[in-house]
Amino acid sequence: MDRDRSRALRTGRRIPAIIGPDRVESTLRGRGRGLAPVPGRDPGGSPSYAGYPWGPSHRCRPSVPPAPPAAVGRLRAWTSARRRPGRPERLPLSPEAGWIDPDAQLRLAAALLSTPETWPAGPGVPTPVTSLAFRAEIENTGDALLRYILLESGAGADAVHSTYVDRLAARDDAPVDADQDGTNADETLAALRAEYAFRTNGQPLDALAPSFLLPALVPDHIVGKPANRRDWAALRAVADPTREQWISPAQLGSLMRAAASRASALLRYGRGDLYGATAEEGQLGLLLLEQAVLADSLLLDSLSFDGRSLGAFEDPGAYDPEVQPRLFPARIVWRRDAGDPRRPEALRLIDRGSDLRDQARLLRGFVELAFLASPEQTHPLLGRLFRGDPFGRPDLTPSALEGPEAETISWDKHVRGLLSFYCAGCHAGTKPEAGFSIETYSLALKGGVNQATNPIVVKGDHAKSLLWQVVALEKPPISKRMPDGGPYLGQIELDLIADWIDQGLIEKDPGLKDRVITPGVDGMRIVLANLAHFHRDPATKLLVERADFAGGRSTMIRPGPVGETLKALSVCAKAFPDEKLALELLEGMAQASADRLVGPGGEVWESYDLGTGAHADADAEIGDAASLFGGLYAAASVLGQTPLIWRLRPGRHACSRTT
Fold first, then answer.
1. What is the per-residue pLDDT for 28?
2. Burial of 555: CB neighbours in 10 Å, binned 0-12, 13-18, 19+
3. CA distance linking residue 333 with residue 351, whole number of Å
4. Strand arrangement, sheet containing 14-19
5. Strand partners, 56
6. Contact indicator for 71, 145 with CB cutoff of 8 Å
7. Residue 1's pLDDT is what?
8. 20 to 30 Å CA-CA from 444: which of 32, 53, 215, 556?
9. What residues contact 425, with CB distance under 8 A and at least 6 apart?
């Protein structure tokens, strides 16, 4: 926007600029100001939305109703290049039709909802939010963003298909499959949400559509015209099953951070031993917290990469990247089930590298959830949440078994990763070779075009199974030995597939034992360990922007990711003083990043290359500069380094150093 301004000043033209939630959020993080919701009449005058606590409204009236106005994806702002001195510019805003970015919305919601009575507004000077009406408007806007994306839009995956519910359903005391649909997951989830209603003394909010796994973009229109704010069926987003559903760790981190923060605010006020100031607020808080717990479980159970395939941490509490490294990759695609758009059918890796900004947002989410679930939580209501009321039950996790069952081979633990490594290049995606896909257990057993004459697996007999034949035999009955052209599977791997078939094609590891977990804690420690192992430059102690599983690192640092990482490490070190690694990473990064990204005149450089020792000639954008300021300010407050207090100079992409 500022570069466009310099050109327009010479011509006097109006300047179009796209303002997204990410810019507003980073500005809030850096300067503690930048968004001022003004209560009043709906500027669009639309009677359908008048009086809704959703913030500024759409100005357009399309045939399909727009999504709740606070959840618009981006705004097109027109601003004049020439203005009278001393008079503020007017920014008439209109929504840019298209898509809502859930990650940006969740980060903006977290920024609005996590600010207490004060915001930092300069070099250590707090600016009180003196107007209660203004504070209420900010909370309403953040709450509306969060509720729509996570609870009302129905755009993501249903919790019934989550690994967390799967584990609860596997317990001995889980409900039975009453509807005889082949799974008791739906009964387990219904029982859990009935417990929410009981703990709040209200009726279950069955019309809501909570989503724990969101697409990259959500359509910005809803299916109906809601009669009121609680007409949740009409608030669903218009479905678009053709859109690619990619996700990143950043989105799940933003989800955990925003959901846990708002849940804490809603559940800390109770009525005796009941959660929430009202029954509805109590249930909304529990549903938001449920989404954070589901995201935590999904990350540890399914979204880590070991160099070959996506999978689970076998023992997250004992994770050591030096022994058995796994990382959270930058991009993953999930495909919707053809018959159920809210069921994720398969997860596929598309960017196996580790991104620093992703890890920072993931760390913020884990820390927020871990602090709420901490055994040291002293609030009488919040302290019960993860002690079995209703979360925190003993979880089920794979473990080493004693006796003959220790040799049991399962799809989840052994076969899926093996086939993914050797076969995913041809037998995954929407058009797998020969109609045979190894993306999921059910698809693998379904076979391909030769299933009628040569079944892919024959339960109990590997010699008659086409899967074993094509990978083990020099001349299989059909096709040729696979993978085509090699390298072929070794004998140990062939025996693994044969044993899996002979033992009955077991899908899930039967070796399960109870383990009490604290949501967020394992994930927090895993991210810290991976930052030190994968991202830390040995010479400078700086955390670089990209790293991969093989040990490769980029040499680039940028103010945006660095600022977010400093902020995340500061929050972690402050919330958990015993996490020495967080403090170690913060101490090694704060001064070094300031020296390399901020010039002598206070300018913030766009990037710095550790390999060449040179910075870019261009200034950083305002959002990245604000992010760096916020991170350095947070680091200084934790480390007690008062000489390093940073503030943004008004009207330019720069920081100045004060002492």
1. 57
2. middle
3. 9
4. 14-19, 75-80, 93-95
5. none
6. yes
7. 42
8. 215
9. 483
